[in-house]
User: Fold these one by one.
Assistant:
Number 1:
Amino acid sequence: MKMIRGMEHLSYEDRLRALGLFSLEKRRLQGDLIAAYKKAGVGLFTRACSDTKGVAVPSPVPACEPEPKTNGHYPAPRLSLSSRATVVATMEAPSQGLQTVMKWKTVVAIFVVVVVYLVTGGLVFRALEQPFESRQKNTIALEKADFLREHVCVTQLELETLIQHAIDADNAGVSPIGNSSNNSSHWDLGSAFFFAGTVITTIGYGNIAPSTVGGKVFCILYAIFGIPLFGFLLAGIGDQLGTIFGKGIARVEKVFRWPL
């Protein structure tokens, strides 16, 4: 009691330090303030207030007002805000670095779907094209045999050479049927437009290609600039399709309980 009476001229904090209770009182104040702010619905705190040295206060609060005096004499410690929300930045940084990564189960499932899709496409194309190809092989073989039988003066080698010249002329855009004034061409506007499309899309579909040096050089330059241009278009379409497929994948994962 004598010690307490002799410390009447000291401040509240100095009296706590003299009694060895300052750290205990500081922790109690910290717990009370944090509990009060959590109870008020504020979960993010900035940094310590100037007087309490460690008590965090929420950044949305405009200023720390002094609490009412306790026991009629000593005010509670004042709280002040810091201009830099260090705790908030620290708490937000890990969440910003998180990225959504697809689980391996989902990747394997999509891979299986793609393989099944490819196999299905192969079966359909084979069913559509192979019978026609077989019929064409049989037809040309029979026609060649009939021609050699009816024209005994023509050998098989001469016939094969003539057919090869006709194929080369057709690939160059010249129809071997009729005279040279025939207007049909593989390089009319429609065919050339189709070929340009196969170049920039990298599909490679078609049986024609430039034969001249100028055409080959232009095809290379056209592809260098055209493929990236088409890639931008494809990326935009892919984003839209990705959104659609993403919703479908999310539903499938929800059904099979595969967290994304």
Number 2:
Amino acid sequence: MVDYRKILQLREQGASVNAIAHLLGCKWKTVDRVLSRCESVWGDIAEVPKNLSNEQIADNIFTNRYSVDQSFLQPDCEKILNRQRQGKSRNELWVEYVRQAKACGKNAYKITRFNELVSEYARSNQLSLPLNHQPGIEGQVDWVGEKAHIIDIDSKERVPIHILVISLPYSGYFYAEAFLDEKMHSWLAGHRNAFNFFEGCPSIIVPDNCRTAVTRARRGTEEAIINTQYAEFAEHYGMFVKPTRPRRPRDKAHVERTVQLVENDLLRPLSQIRCHSLAEFNRLLHAKMKTVLQRPYSKRTGSRFQIFMDEEQKMLLPLPLCEYQSYVEKKAVVSRDSHIQFDCAYYSVPVEHIKQTVIVRATETMVTIYTEKRTLIAEHYRALHKWQRRSKEEHFPGGNTGEKGYSRAGFIERAKAYGAEMVDWCNGALDRFEFEVQGYRTVVAVLSKLSSYHPEVVKEAARIALSSSIFSTKGFNTIAGNLQAERLENLSSKQVQMNLNSLYCSHAQGEAE
């Protein structure tokens, strides 16, 4: 309850309306209304009796000022609250009340007083006030969870799927889509597809406190920190993210009811159908969804689709000209070849960042690389296949990284110890790329393992690899490994034969004696 006595005390001390509202944590309009009504009843706030309790002050300013006037039609507050719970807005109910008052030949309260009477009735009877939703303002989001599945066509196993539901409380219009997980990519894709389905987006989006929406709650308060990527997504669409408060289920009560509707009217019938792909399941889900959206309300005029098209769609924010590009962000360390490895591919960065930790942000088409202080240092088109190298000449001006011993000359010097064949192979591995630094990883990986092979095996492996134009680490090591195994097998066979010969000679000598 508002502390009316404290408002009067602070006002007498000279505090402004805004200052009082800030100190007491209430709206400035509330403070202004209390002060004006006290002046109307007692003439001046200094004349308010000091012995009155908070409740007595409230009774005086809200009852004396607005005593029941028989010339006004008194609203049926209980009926109004029930109809509001069925989906009617407070504005619609006030219009009906005005119409009834005119029909009875009585005056009608203005909408402000009408709302006060209904709210006071709800408070005095300890009733929860239905939320008064406005068209196009709010959208609510929630996951259904593992309430459905598809059948893997190969293993025949049940694969659980998750349903994302986004609803518009004013009309009840909603969108549902199935995903394999509840990760950020699925979360944003569900939002994007829902807004495309609505052909617009709400001004405010109300998610749960899930990890994809909220990083963590701010310590000591109920305020949540919005996930960075989700905040960027909302900014792209011009929306404001308003997560539900902890332990406040009514903050997204509408989508909770919509989730139950999806479970009962969409997922339950689909549970009898065997789907082998996500696309097939979503096709059937959307067919059921459109049927439910066209179904007339039982206690409200029209259907979800009709109310949405007539009243809410035009109030939504327009979609941006280009769709939001979701991204994946990870950390990586720049290798000595001035490249980082990301998603089975290599991307170059300037040589001055070698051995530093960088941040990699990848969309479906681009890879951008930043320092830990978020300074952009490199940008590449995303690799099209595994282990592709994306490099730019300006990242290594001298043609190499400048690392001591980490150059063609250094590698060739190491290869000379294994013969001319190995030198030729190293040159071939470096020459096959546009920039020789792109071959450094391969050459280093091969050279580092040569000590485990016999020198003759290395020479033969290099000769075979050269003749077959095999310059990959895996290819060279496969050849060398097979040759090494053959050599060991031959040595083992010779040793067995020698042992047998020795045994035979010893046996023959014994018989001769």
